[in-house]
């Protein structure tokens, strides 16, 4: 293994890669691969729930459950990928094979979203939903296997490209790696929703989910091709046998020694191998033990996509020329990552170092946790603001009185109109989940003796009988012009709809068609427009992202640097497993806690994280940083010495395991274990 500077060709990293500015060129292919892969993953994920809901026609509950199951699976499969990579195929081959599985999964998703395939009556809707459901579930399973399987391998494979004395470069690599993840995810979460909104189809036009899944599929193929192009330059660490089997064997043999019956004779060479494996297992277990409190961070972090997005649906997203959708607020995270990672790396961390403070990885992670807790306190404060504004509107819940004949309504308002609102008994508006933020609700009450037809340039809302009211209809927020028509006579009424608002328009009995009907219609606000601006979510996004930079970027590098050479991917998988557990905690706490006040739930999560953070800092205090390469080198030196020794004694080296009496076994074992490292 060539991991020292080679003066002839200027190589410094491992493998055959040229070195550019102190970094092995092979790294370029790995970060580009990660960029494309994350584009593919996050792009597909961005439209997945809408695909379930609008294409497969699932209800909100089913769509949400399948979505979370898929995400959880994506963070469980890394264990599988890591075992395959570290014990059998090696990281390189595992990445190649699982990337193919991944790309096939993405293609299956894209094909499953072509409605024309089963639309034999050509009415724009699939005729055999089973085909689309089965294909998309197979696709999602393959994607989870692929994305999760390669995830621990790519980061560890990147780390492998650096030589022993390139700690600084390796740290920078993990930062750049994180930047690429966020560059890819930022672009895709902007692009795929736009693609989805296009209309496409052979026989009939429908929302273009196939394109929204097709582009991520193409990016996954690009990721694979880029990775293969770099293949001649990589340092490919050989898999070191079946690690899991070795671990089990090691435990078994140790037990045999301990209970001292039926023990085996093992050469001194094998003794050292066993001791090395025990030392490596100890390194991994120490780190895994330290990981126990970590899922709590992810529990808070992953609520960006759920609770915080729902919070945004009750806020005003009007940023002047730009109107932001609640789910688009999530792009603030990768945008902030792209700015914060370079600032931290080139300014904050060096500054802290200059101040003489030893800001160790575990200290960074502790601060990251605290920042996430602060983010949730900010979220709670914003929630209190929202609740105050909602309370005001509930008190002003109106009664509508008609002129002649007195039509009388009492409106029961239970939620915001922009949040996939359900009309109950034509009177109450109940929040059931978020769909389209731009839609608001309205209805008309006809106080005239004649039937009135209501329409806009885009839609006809039908005829309203005298002294009767229309059902609620949806319309895009912003300015709307209604045409009120009775027979051949008409007039126009214009109004503005704010985000989240709902209106009842009362047509006066005194309305005269042909004249200005602006004064003859009274608009009553059923639900006030959202008044708390979405910009108020920026502080909470800032703190959670700053926390992510300190926690996640550091943790990724920490998991690599503290892992023994044969278990790098296994420890990366352990790190990702904390993400999966964090997601399960969200489901459990949300289900069990059932806290009526959302702000209180945010405070609860913040407090839990602070408590966990205290425990983690105590555990971190007792953790001793190790240099696995150094420890392994000492063991290997000893192994080589004893190997030579064994070879000089004919026949002994060939004997793998010879059954001997327990006294001999003890003698040998004691001799080997008394030798100092
Ligand atoms: N900041 C996230 C990416 C992101 C992009 C758009 C919306 C939300 C998040 C990120 O960097 N993710 C990394 C690390 C990670 C984070 C959480 C769970 C697992 C891994 C990634 O590898 O995806």
From TrEMBL:
InterPro entries, alphabetized: MFS_trans_sf, POT_fam, PTR2_symporter_CS
Gene behind the chain: SLC15A1
Membrane topology qualifier: Multi-pass membrane protein
SUPFAM superfamilies assigned to the protein according to its UniProt record, in alphabetical order: MFS general substrate transporter
Family the UniProt entry places it in: Belongs to the major facilitator superfamily. Proton-dependent oligopeptide transporter (POT/PTR) (TC 2.A.17) family.
Location relative to the cell: Apical cell membrane; Cell membrane; Membrane
Protein name per its UniProtKB record: Solute carrier family 15 member 1
Positions of transmembrane segments: 20-42, 62-83, 95-117, 129-150, 171-191, 211-235, 283-301, 364-386, 572-590, 602-623
Species the sequence originates in: Lates calcarifer
Keywords: Cell membrane, Glycoprotein, Membrane, Peptide transport, Protein transport, Symport, Transmembrane, Transmembrane helix, Transport
GO molecular function, one term: symporter activity
């Amino acid at each position: 293994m060539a991991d020292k500077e080679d003066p002839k060709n200027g190589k410094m990293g491992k493998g055959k890669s040229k070195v550019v500015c102190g970094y092995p060129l092979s790294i370029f292919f790995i970060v580009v691969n990660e960029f494309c892969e994350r584009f593919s993953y996050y792009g597909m994920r961005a439209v997945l729930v809408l695909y379930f809901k609008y294409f497969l026609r699932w209800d909100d509950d089913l769509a949400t459950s399948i979505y979370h199951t898929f995400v959880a699976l994506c963070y469980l499969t890394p264990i599988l990928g890591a075992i395959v990579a570290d014990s059998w195929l090696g990281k390189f081959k595992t990445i190649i094979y699982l990337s193919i599985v991944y790309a096939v999964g993405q293609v299956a998703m894209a094909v499953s979203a072509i409605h024309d395939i089963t639309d034999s009556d050509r009415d724009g809707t699939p005729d055999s939903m089973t085909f689309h459901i089965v294909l998309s579930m197979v696709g999602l399973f393959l994607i989870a296997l692929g994305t999760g399987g390669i995830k621990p391998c790519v980061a560890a494979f990147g780390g492998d490209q650096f030589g022993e004395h390139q700690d600084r470069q390796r740290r920078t690599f993990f930062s750049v790696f994180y930047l690429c993840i966020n560059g890819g995810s930022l672009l895709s979460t902007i692009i795929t929703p736009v693609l989805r909104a296009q209309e496409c189809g052979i026989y009939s036009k429908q929302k273009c989910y196939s394109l929204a899944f097709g582009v991520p599929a193409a990016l996954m193929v690009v990721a694979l091709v880029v990775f293969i192009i770099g293949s001649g330059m990589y340092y490919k660490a050989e898999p070191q046998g079946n690690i899991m089997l070795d671990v089990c064997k090691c435990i078994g043999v140790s037990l045999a020694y301990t209970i001292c019956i039926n023990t085996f004779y093992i050469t001194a060479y094998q003794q050292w191998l066993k001791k090395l494996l025990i030392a490596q297992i100890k390194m991994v277990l120490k780190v895994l033990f330290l990981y126990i409190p970590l899922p709590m961070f992810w529990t808070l972090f992953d609520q960006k996509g759920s609770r915080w997005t729902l919070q945004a649906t009750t806020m005003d997203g009007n940023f002047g020329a730009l109107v932001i959708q609640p789910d688009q607020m999530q792009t603030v995270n990768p945008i902030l990552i792209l700015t914060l990672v370079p600032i931290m790396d080139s300014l904050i961390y060096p500054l802290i170092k200059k101040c003489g403070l030893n800001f160790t990885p575990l200290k960074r992670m502790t601060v990251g946790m605290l920042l996430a807790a602060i983010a949730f306190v900010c979220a709670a404060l914003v929630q209190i603001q929202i609740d105050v504004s909602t309370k005001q509107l509930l008190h002003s819940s109106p009664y509508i009185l008609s002129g002649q004949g007195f039509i009388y309504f009492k409106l029961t308002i239970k939620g915001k109109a922009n949040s996939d609102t359900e009309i109950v008994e034509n009177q109450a508006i109940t929040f059931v989940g978020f769909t389209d933020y731009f839609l608001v609700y309205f209805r008309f009450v006809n106080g005239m003796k004649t039937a009135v037809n209501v329409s806009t340039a885009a839609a006809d809302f039908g005829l309203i009988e005298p002294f009767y009211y229309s059902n609620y209809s949806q319309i895009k927020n912003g300015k709307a012009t209604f045409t009120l028509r009775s027979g051949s006579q008409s007039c126009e009424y214009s109004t503005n709809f704010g985000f989240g608002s709902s209106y009842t328009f009362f047509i006066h009995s005194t309305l005269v068609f042909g004249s200005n009907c602006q004064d003859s219609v009274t608009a009553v606000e059923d639900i006030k427009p959202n008044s708390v601006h979405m910009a108020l979510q920026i502080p909470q996004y800032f703190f959670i992202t700053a926390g992510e930079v300190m926690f996640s970027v550091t943790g990724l590098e920490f998991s690599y640097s503290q892992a023994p050479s044969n278990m790098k991917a296994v420890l990366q998988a352990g790190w990702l497993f904390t993400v999966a557990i964090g997601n399960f905690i969200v489901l459990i706490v949300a289900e069990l806690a059932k806290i009526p006040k959302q702000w209180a739930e945010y405070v609860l999560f913040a407090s839990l994280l602070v408590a966990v953070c205290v425990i983690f800092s105590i555990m971190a205090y007792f953790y001793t940083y190790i240099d696995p390469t150094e420890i392994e080198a000492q063991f290997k030196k000893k192994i080589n010495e004893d190997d030579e020794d064994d070879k000089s004694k004919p026949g002994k080296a060939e004997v793998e395991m010879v059954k001997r009496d327990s006294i001999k076994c003890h003698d040998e074992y004691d001799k080997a274990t008394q030798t100092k490292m």
